[in-house]
């Protein structure tokens, strides 16, 4: 069950990062999610071994299981720390990369498709606001005093993206929306990892109790004089 839960969290984080891949300069930002998936795979196999060792009360098996749980616990703590580090780096990473992606916009290339999709899905326009488009190459080339149609508010019909009608455009910048989305996903993953790490901690205590449990030999002590 824990392996299935971690697999879902890891897959969810990676899938979310793929949506914003063009705006992330540090490609190692998905490292915590990769660690989570690896831990989930190992946990599924080791969980079966741990169950068998517990039912048989094998001290060797329980000792091995304890060592493996300790390794998994350390991996989860590492993923938690990395998640905290990359959560703080998201803001500077997005701000620095997004402007270069927006500057490559020409309405046809892959970057343009990503930008249009981002603005439509997040209901935003520009990096900080729609005025950022006035400094892009696309704006200077077209010279029509307008922004991409993807900046238009969805409740406005016949919007052309003209800057003469700013009330038809989204006023929120995309950088803040992307940062908020990514930080929310990372925070969610960190909470799940912390929860499983706490479970691992108590699991290690339980294994220690089982391992240190005095085995009953099944024999009764003989006292002198009993058979006299």
Automatic annotation (TrEMBL):
Protein name as annotated: Tetraspanin
Function per UniProt: Regulates the proliferation and migration of oligodendrocytes, a process essential for normal myelination and repair.
Family: Belongs to the tetraspanin (TM4SF) family.
Signal peptide region: none
Coiled-coil segments on the chain, per record: none
Keywords for the protein's UniProt record, in alphabetical order: Glycoprotein, Membrane, Transmembrane, Transmembrane helix
A GO-annotated cellular component: plasma membrane
InterPro entries per the UniProt record, alphabetical: Tetraspanin/Peripherin, Tetraspanin_animals, Tetraspanin_EC2_sf
Transmembrane segments: 29-55, 62-86, 185-210
Matching Gene3D superfamilies: Tetraspanin (1.10.1450.10)
Highest taxon of the lineage: Eukaryota
Quaternary structure note: Interacts with claudin-11/CLDN11 and integrins.
UniProt membrane topology term: Multi-pass membrane protein
Localisation per UniProt entry: Membrane
Keyword tRNA processing set for record: no
Source organism of the structure: Columba livia
């Amino acid at each position: 069950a824990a392996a299935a839960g971690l697999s879902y969290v890891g897959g969810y984080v990676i899938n979310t990062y793929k949506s914003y891949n063009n705006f992330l300069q540090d490609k190692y930002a998905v490292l915590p999610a990769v660690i989570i998936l690896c831990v989930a795979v190992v946990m599924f196999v080791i969980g079966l071994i741990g169950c068998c060792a517990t039912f048989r009360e094998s001290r060797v098996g329980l000792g091995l299981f304890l060592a493996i749980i300790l390794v998994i616990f350390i991996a989860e703590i590492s993923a938690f720390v990395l998640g905290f580090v990359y959560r703080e780096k998201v803001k500077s990473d997005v701000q620095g990369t997004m402007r270069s992606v927006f500057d490559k916009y020409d309405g046809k290339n892959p970057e343009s498709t990503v930008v249009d999709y981002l603005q439509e899905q997040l209901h935003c326009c520009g990096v900080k606001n729609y005025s950022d488009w006035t400094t892009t190459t696309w704006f200077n080339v077209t010279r029509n005093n307008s922004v991409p149609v993807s900046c238009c508010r969805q409740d406005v019909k016949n919007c052309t993206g003209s800057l003469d009608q700013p009330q038809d455009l989204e006023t929120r910048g995309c950088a803040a929306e992307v940062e908020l989305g990514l930080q929310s996903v990372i925070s969610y993953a960190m909470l799940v990892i912390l929860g499983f790490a706490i479970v691992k901690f108590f699991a290690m205590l339980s294994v220690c109790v089982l391992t240190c449990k005095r085995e009953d030999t099944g024999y009764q002590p003989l006292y002198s004089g009993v058979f006299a």
